[in-house]
Fold this protein.
Amino acid sequence: MSVHEPASMKPSGPPQRGGGFSQAALDEIAELRKRYPTAEALTLPALHIAQREWGGWLPDEAIAAVAAELGLPVAAVYGVVTFYDLYHQKPVGRHRIRVCTNLSCQLRGSEEIMETLRQELGVEEGEITPDGRCSYVHFECLGSCDTAPMMMVDDEYQENLTPNRVRQIVKGLK
Amino acid sequence: MAAFERVLTRNVGRPEALTLKGYQQNGGYEGLAKALKMEPDAVIDEVKKSGLRGRGGAGFSAGLKWSFIPKGKDKPKYLVCNADESEPGTFKDRLLMEYDPHQLIEGCAICCWAVSAATCYIYIRGEYTKATEILERALKDAYEGGILGDSVMGSGFKLNMYVHRGAGAYICGEETGMLESLEGRRGQPRVKPPFPAVVGAFGAPTVINNVETLANVPHILVRGADWFKAIGTDERNTGPKLYAISGHVERPGTYEYPIGVTFREMLEGCGGMLKGRPLKAFIPGGASAPILKADQIDIKMDFDTVAKAGSMLGSAAVIVMDDTTCMVRSVSRLAKFFNHESCGQCTPCREGTNWLELMLKRIEHGEGTERDSQVLLSICSHIGGNSLCALGDAAIGPVQSLVKNFQEEIDQHIRDRACPFPHRRYFDSGFENGA
Ligand SMILES: Cc1cc2nc3c(=O)[nH]c(=O)nc-3n(C[C@H](O)[C@H](O)[C@H](O)COP(=O)(O)O)c2cc1C
Ligand code: SF4
Ligand code: FES
């Protein structure tokens, strides 16, 4: 299900973090384990934690760590990772921007938002800026169509966008 | 439209409702307290009698669904609340969770009591980080306040409730795709039967209901099925309803009305068309619903009336388009969505949605041929009814309605060998200030 990643994506920063989960993450997973009758049900929660631990994406090492922790085949966890749009198998910018381009946002200018990002960041969709600061992709409806056009910057919704507002937001990202 | 009372959104604009105390001050958890004093079956009967139909898309009777769950407390049972909200155009559940999380928790708790489920998962889409935080905080308060945990409001009924985050996949909103995802796998829908009421989460009987459906439940308990039934069009279309309005209107947003408000009233309620431009078309129920033309402006927005008009109320996500909108381009965008979100299990859906996207793009760019409308319909007929879940049927609705209602626009693209709509620069054309 992940289609937005062009082959030209250059890795940035250390490709692998080295080692497995931190102790804090292991404790978190152990706590979550109490909520479910099976360990397999922790696959999504554990991948969310892993992605946080590994700097926003899931190198093979992170996938292997999740599989080992939950006692699952690596292939099963890998299959899950490739299915969901929020898991990344390639490095991402320090800030990750997702622009909704679905119908309600398209009706209110989302294409110009994409164009503004292209100009402002100087890279194509899916690529990382040379300084590793940002990457951006288009995305499906983010459930904020009443404030279209909108985009998600890391975990924050940025709403009622205009090209000027987008420029300001991008300048503010360190 | 006559004055009406806000029910589901009564706590919007009351930030204190985010706290347990603030929620209780406004009558919160009275519905749960009342339910706990009733027999579970009596709760189910009351909900059945109210006529409450599912707000997630299919409009199935909530009480009837609960009654399918086998009785007894010996085996585990689950409630999974569908907070995946990924239908393009839909943003009402987010409002309910961000502004009134306890209303949802209360509705879930009542449902769990009614079907004797000891565990509830709220499956929320991964992008909703703010709603997740708010819900987590409310759940914590509810545990500490004795609403959840070993003895719900001192009744001895044990109930645990957890938030489970998805990871970005529309198909996980389909109820069995959701169960697969909850269990830690790819969200590929299951073959039915068995239905979730028999074999659901972790092999156990499971109720799956939408956020808004469950948010109605406390009010039904407090004020009774008869009160609920008096709201709406008729016996089959009852209760308050949230409509998520977006697109070319002056004030997009989530609006609460008695179910069956007309589209015209709704449009007036949100300030009318953007810049006063003429209405061309609207989608009454999210991306899966066939598109209606402007001449349907007086339609009553309830399940049965919209279905009779050849579309569906779905998630009641209303997307409004003015006369500058290229319908081919709009449907092309929806086709791209369905192609991206098809889980790939069934060949007609996997291949067909891809073809629909490719062909619509071709027409959009002026490269279509005279035969294309027929080919589009033929692809649709191969997908429809030939796929495992309702995504396949959802994907063809917009396309069929394009051919049916806007054939002349398709023809124009083909004749002119280009899109006849000047690709308006939205921000430079005076549509919005500040660009
Ligand atoms: C492709 C697809 C996506 C769906 N997405 C959602 C969704 O995001 N939220 C939702 O509540 N129901 C969604 N549904 C409907 C659910 O399958 C199910 O009918 C609903 O959650 C039942 O709850 P209700 O009876 O309270 O409406 C979807 C269905 C399909 C086929
Ligand atoms: S109809 Fe489409 S989305 Fe549904 S199960 Fe089949 S391939 Fe998957
Ligand atoms: S269409 Fe953009 S947020 Fe829904």
